[in-house]
Structure formats: structure tokens, C-alpha cells
Amino acid sequence: MTLFEPAPVTHYVQIALNLPLRREFTYALPPGVTAQPGNRVRVQFHGRKLSGVVVNVSDTCDLPPGKVKSIDLVLDQELLLPASLLELSRRMSVTYGCSLGEALDATLPAAAKARGQRRIPHLELLAPPDLAKAQIEQLEEKHQERARVLRTVLEFGGPMQVNDVRRRTSTSDSPWKTLVKAGLLRRVMIAEDLQELVPSADERALRHDLNADQQRAVDAVTRAVEAKAHRTFLLHGVTGSGKTEVYLRILEEVRSRGRSGIVLVPEISLTPQTVGRFASRFPDVAVLHSGLTDSERGRQWQRLMQGKAKVAIGARSALFAPVQNLGLIVIDEEHETSFKQDCTPRYHARELAIVRGEIENAVVVLGSATPTLESIGKARRGIYELVTLPKRAGAGRMPKVIVQDLRSEPKEVQRSGVVLSRTLLVMMEERLRARDQVLLFLNRRGFSPVLLCPSCGEVVRCEHCAVSMTWHSRRGRLICHWCCNEKRRPESCATCQHPAMHELGVGTERLEAAVKQRFPEAIVARMDADTMTERGAHERVLGAFRKKQIDVLIGTQMIAKGLDFPDVTLVGVVSADTGLFVPDYRSAERTFQLLFQVAGRAGRGEKPGTVVIQTYCPDNYAIAAAAKLDYDLFVQQELQFRKQTGYPPFARLIRVLAEGNAEAEARALLEKAVTPVRGFAEMDVLGPAPAVITKVKDRWRWHMLAKCYTQASFTKAMQALGTVEDLATRTCRVTLDVDPSSLM
Ligand code: ADP
Ligand code: ZN
After folding, report:
1. What does the pLDDT average to over 245-266?
2. Which of 113, 145, 167 is the last residue before a domain boundary?
3. Distance of CA 437 to CAs 122, 428, 723, Å?
4. 237 lines ligand 1 (CB under 6 A)
5. Is the CB of 394 under 6 A from ligand 1?
6. What is the pLDDT of residue 3?
7. How many percent of the chain have pLDDT more than 90?
8. Ligand sitting nearest the alpha carbon of 215
9. In a domain, 635, yes or no
10. Cis peptide leading into 740, omega within 30 of 0?
């Protein structure tokens, strides 16, 4: 008698791996093992153990059975990526041209994957500070990168994450490893500290009675939430108009209907006030910030998945929070570039939030005082619903703006380069006498951006990048802002031997010196990437400013955003023109946004505020509109310009950048990449052409730009360009960037 045992049914799974391979791989499930789409598993892949995500399960398989390997194991059974996030990852991979595995890796953060507490490599000073200082001087000539690393750790004043050191010094692993071997630094493993977000009393935010404009906004959005259909709102409210209160109320409405919400803010460290206000109003908030340990983040994930936490708040990646029954996604300051990720997958959180809203029938609210042209363009075409808050809500009024035409300053003042116009000086004097505070904004660090020979006109350039080097007088070095390369100031011109070089242009360092000289009794502080090298420096300076221990605060864009100090009655924009001539179609938009946001820092309290905008181009439409604080005027002109030139919102952009050791290769790769999309309908291709900065870190840069005027042409272009990164060679990098935030 033969016993016919039923053959065990084999199940197969399709696995997406976090590799730049745009396909999935089939594995078998061992008998008795089950898995579902959204589970993480471990597999063998070409001799490596990798973890991947199950994206499909089936009973059949096209491959011969002997060819199919089994998975090793299912990781974290209880953790399952929700189907909606799997779908979001799929759409991300198609739109941004990454592999599904790469998209899933962003969606399912390392935090949720890791078990236990992750410990992070840090570097700390082992040598005594005096010895380290002496070493830095010695290393400075021959081993610049090592000198840079050592100085950065020394200035930080405590253990610093290896990744941060590398990023800030633009170096690889080898310099710090050498310093460790030499006994100057020590590598230590430290668990990332848990920065508890305890909402302070004043952030506990009184519940204001809504004004009529706010009420209208809340009602409009609430109706859409009620309808349980996806809809996108653009909340355009001037600075101080009470947008946060609107978000809070909408979220209350969403919660009272048993649904959940996600709130995205640009950078959590810069928005503790906003975060605090949400955390104090909702007991069930999960705050997802970079200071969380992995196990803590995993716990927040679980709370959200199980529906114990119903509101997630965080920066860009909080978009992927696994909230249950999503009703609302808020994007605060939707114009901020930090919503775009600048490494693979290069997604734009704002655009992807709308996709998630579609998938989960959730309402999306984009808020800003200066909405992007993309968003306002869509609102004007009725794709988004526009809601406006035209007035400040609290005590503050919009400031008075004075445009100071620098062409009318005396020639000697112009020539000397340091430009504090008479108007600004007089006003500063007056405000300082009244014990008010002054903010001076200049979006350029260092002493002067150019060191020029007055005789032959030669400029000191970086030998690795096609840019001029910035003179930093306090450090006494010339520094390249693209690769961090430094050098000594030449005694004479290298070309014509003229004995003195001339400092051209003004940076924050020079401005600080000028202000101190002019107002010796005032307490002046500077906030830019050069002065904020020590840990905790940011909070310290802002704290001192709040306590009125600082009279004049000078800064780059670091001080443009979010700051709310009632005693600031004067804001000076030292040069409104720094970004105006950057060859990017957004230069006018960015100039307008920055001026408008900076102006919003004045007159937040009871006292009226004044803004002085210094410019050589008072007639430029971005500056003229900012001076009138007239967003609509700016948009009207900018939309016209965008329409004529075919830029967003009238096109979606795809950029391909090739960076090669040899210029010819970068160019050739791009020619090859671009061939398939030439002549496509409803789109234009610009380039290949040398990038604006033609060389960075010894790599030659070429790029091309596809302007797709319709969704159909965008889809078609992505089918052709989605895999261009595969053209990369050992000596040439290729990057595909959809909705690029930089065209340099
Ligand atoms: P925005 O985010 O639009 O710049 P905020 O939400 O920070 O503005 O609000 C600005 C100030 O106005 C805050 O101090 C806030 O407490 C206050 N505020 C908001 N709504 C009201 C209201 N309805 N009545 C009075 N004050 C309000
Ligand atoms: Zn350089």
C-alpha cells in the first residue's frame, strides 16, 4: 500500500531589498513559516545576509524549484508595515526613480527595525586641549583634513558623532582614524541621548478664541475631514496670523471624530515652540525626532501602530508614521527646502504627503506665510483649496518696511564695502538707546566672500572646486565653502605679485566687526555656522537673546525663521541682493521668501517694528514686493515669468547630474542618458551642459534638466530616465533628482 502524503504547499514571497536594483527577488518560505506583505525577513543574497521586506506572497513561482532559496527567518513578526505605506513606497519608487527596497527603507525607519538600544560611534578628545591646539597648528600645512577634524572636535567641546564630524569637515573616515591611532582622539560608543520634549509653561499655549479668519479656515478643513475624502488645502497666513492655533483646532476636530493626524515641521530642533504646543494640547502625541534612541523610536512606532498614540509630529520622515485611521496631514512652513531629502530616496515630503492623503482619504493642509509657487499655482487652478489669514492674530502688527537704496550712499562708504547705511545706523542708535533689540540679517558667512588682487583682478580660488575662497579673518584662513579646503592668505598676488590683496564684499564676520566698532557699548552676538560649532551653542545664544543679554544679534538664515522675540523692534537686512543673481529659476522666489520671513521677526510684541532692507536693486520685483509685504504682487509677476520660461508650477523638473574624475566621461554619460528622452512631446530637455559650479572636490560636473509640462510626459520621461543611475561607473557618479531643490 502506498501512502500518498499530500505534498507540502510551498509559498513564495517577493522580497524588496535595500539595494539600488530596481526589481524584487523571489524566495521560498520554509514549511510552517508564514509571512505577509509588509513583514521584514532575512535572506541570503550573493553570500550576504540582508534584510528585506515582503511585498507579495504567492503559491506559484516561475523559477525552477531548485533555483529558489528559502528565507532565513521572519524578523519581528509583530511589526508589519501597513498596506497603505507599502503602496506609498511603491508610488515613491516610481515617482523618484529609486528601487522599491530603497523606498521601503525610508518608510520603515532603522529605528523601527533595530532591537534594543543602538549605540552610536562618537569621537572625543584624548589629548589635553593645549596639546591638541599645538597639533592642529602642526598639521595645518601638510595634513589639512586631519587638522580640520581635530579642530572641529576640540571646538565642539564633548563627544561628537562620527557622522557629524565627517559631514562638517567634508572628510572621509581616514583622517579621524589616523588621529585615533596617534592618540589624539578616542572613538567611543554612546547611546544617542534622549532629548525629552517637555513642553514649557509658556508653550502650554492658552487656548485663544479663534478670530473670524481662523474660524473660517477651521470650518473649511473640518467639512472636508467630515466628508472622508482626500482634499488639499493651502493655508496662506501672514507671519503671526495664528496658523498654529488653526492646526491645533483642526486636529481637535479630527481627533473628536476618532481619526488621527500627522504634523510635519521643517526642523524639529528649530521649532521646539511649535512642537511643545502640540504636545501640550494632545495627550496622545508621538514626537519623532532625531534625538530619539532606536528603541525609543521603535516604541513610538508601536504606539502609533497599535493606535495608542494618535498624533505624530516630526520632521520630513514623520510622514511615514504608521498612524491608524489617518484623517489629516499638516505641513507647516511648506515652502521650506528641508522637506526635500537630498540623498536616495530623494523624495519631497510635501508632494508625497499628498500621495499619502490620496491613498488614505486624508485631508492635507499646507501652511505658510510665503507659499511656494508650486502650491499657490495649484491653488489658483483649483487643485488645492486656498484659505487665507491676512492679519496678525495677537498683539503684534505687521512691521513698517523701509527700502534703503544703497546707490545713494556716499561713494566712500560704498567703496569701503562695509555697508551700514546712514538710515540703518540712525535707527540702530535710536533703538539701542531705548533698550530694544536689533536683528541684523546677512546671508553670507565669513569676512569677505572674495579676495581680489586690485592690480590684475585675480581672485583666490579653491584648487579643488570652481569657486572663489572666502576670507575668514578670525581664523585667519581662506576657506572653500564647497569642500572645506583651507589655505593661508597669500602675502601677494600669485599672478602679478602685487603686494596686497583686497577684501571684496561683506560677510557676517565683517558686519560684526563694523557693528562693534560703531556701537562699542552694545552687546553683539553672531549666529552662523562658524560661531555655532560648540554643542548647545544655538540654544545658549537664543536663550541669552531672550533674556535681553544681547542687544544686537547678527546672523545668516539661521535667524530668519520662527524666532519670536517681543522686544525686537528693528530688523536690518544688510544685503537683500546676495541670492538675487544666483542662476536658479527660484532666485527671486527665495529672495522674496527670505525677506518676508525676516521681516516677520520684527514687531511680534506690543511695540511696533521696523524693517530696513538695504539693496542696490530696489526696483527688482522680488525686493519691491517684499518691501510692500505684498505676496500677491510678487506671485502675480513670478507666475508670469514661470509661465514664459516653462518652470514650476508649469512644469515638473527632473535633473540628472553626472560627476566624474574626467569631464569627458561625465559629459558622455549624460549624452547617453538623455538620448532616449529627446524629442518627447510636451517636454523640453536642457543640456547636457556643465553645471553652474563646474567642479567640486576635483569632480567635474555636468547636468541636464527635463521640464515636463504634463503628467503624461513626466510619467514617460521617468520610464526612460528612472534607471539612469545604473550608468554610473567607478569614476563617475550619476544622480537622478525629481523636484530638485538645487540646480547648482
Ligand atoms: P504663525 O504660525 O501664523 O506665525 P502663531 O500661531 O505663532 O502664528 O501665532 C502668533 C501669535 O498669535 C501667538 O503668540 C499666538 O498665541 C497668538 N494667537 C493665535 N491665535 C490668536 C487669537 N485668536 N487671538 C489672540 N492671539 C492669538
Ligand atoms: Zn573647494
Report:
1. 95
2. 113
3. 38, 9, 54
4. yes
5. yes
6. 52
7. 59
8. 1
9. yes
10. no
Q: What are 569-587's pLDDT values in tens digits? A: 999 999 999 888 888 999 9
Say yes or no: 385 and 423 in one domain.
no
Q: Could you tell me if the CB of 211 is within 6 A of ligand 1?
A: yes
Whether 141 and 248 map to the same domain: the answer is no
Cβ-contact 661, 668 below 8 angstroms: no
Measured from the CA of 241, which atom of ligand 1 is nearest?
A: 3
Residue closest via CA to ligand 1's atom 20 equals: 242
Grid cell at residue 61: 513561482
**Distance from C-alpha of 314 to C-alpha of 319, rounded to nearest angstrom:** 8
What are 712's three cell numbers? 503624461
Same domain, 658 and 733: yes
For ligand 1, atom 9, the nearest C-alpha belongs to: 242
pLDDT value, residue 302? 83
Supply the pLDDT for residue 572.
94
Instruction: Show which of 356, 389, 422 is a domain's final residue.
Output: 389
| 473 within some domain | no
Does 332 sit in the ligand 1 pocket, CB within 6 Å?
A: no
> How far is the C-alpha of 460 from the C-alpha of 451, rounded, in Å?
6
Residue 195: pLDDT band with limits 50, 70, 90: very low
State the ligand closest to the CA atom of 483: 2
Average pLDDT, the chain: 88
| Claim to verify: residue 633 and residue 670 sit in the same structural domain | no
242 lines ligand 1 (CB under 6 A): yes
The maximal CA–CA distance of the chain, rounded, in angstroms, is: 112
Residue at 492 is within a domain: no
Question: Are residues 43 and 167 both part of a single domain?
Answer: no
Looking at the structure, tell me whether residues 635 and 725 fall in a common domain: no
- The number of distinct structural domains making up the chain is 5
Distance 659 CA to ligand 2 centre (A): 15
pTM above 0.85, yes or no: yes
Q: Is the CB of 597 under 6 A from ligand 1?
A: no
If one residue of 207, 208, 278 were mutated to test the ligand 1 pocket, choosing by the most ligand atoms within 8 A of its CB, it would be 208
The answer to whether the Cα torsion of 398, 402, 403, 404 is positive or negative is: negative
Nearest CA to ligand 1 atom 14: 394
Residue 647, all three cell numbers: 518652470
Q: For ligand 1, is residue 244 a contact (CB within 6 Å)? A: yes
Ligand 1 site, residue 245, Cβ cutoff 6 A: yes
- DSSP state, residue 729: B
- In a 3-state reduction of DSSP, which class is residue 273? helix
- In this structure, the answer to whether residues 619 and 661 fall within a common structural domain is no
| 208 CB within 6 A, ligand 1 | yes
Atom of ligand 1 nearest to the CA of 394: 26
Q: Are residues 593 and 520 in the same domain?
A: yes
Hey, whose CA ends up nearest to atom 26 of ligand 1? 394
Q: Which domain holds residue 729?
A: 652-738
Instruction: Say which residue the cell 521696523 belongs to.
Output: 610
Q: Are strands 486-487 and 502-504 parallel, antiparallel or unpaired?
A: unpaired
Any domain includes 207: no
Can you say whether residue 83 is alpha, beta or left, with left for phi > 0 and alpha for psi between -120 and 50 degrees?
A: alpha
333 lines ligand 1 (CB under 6 A): no
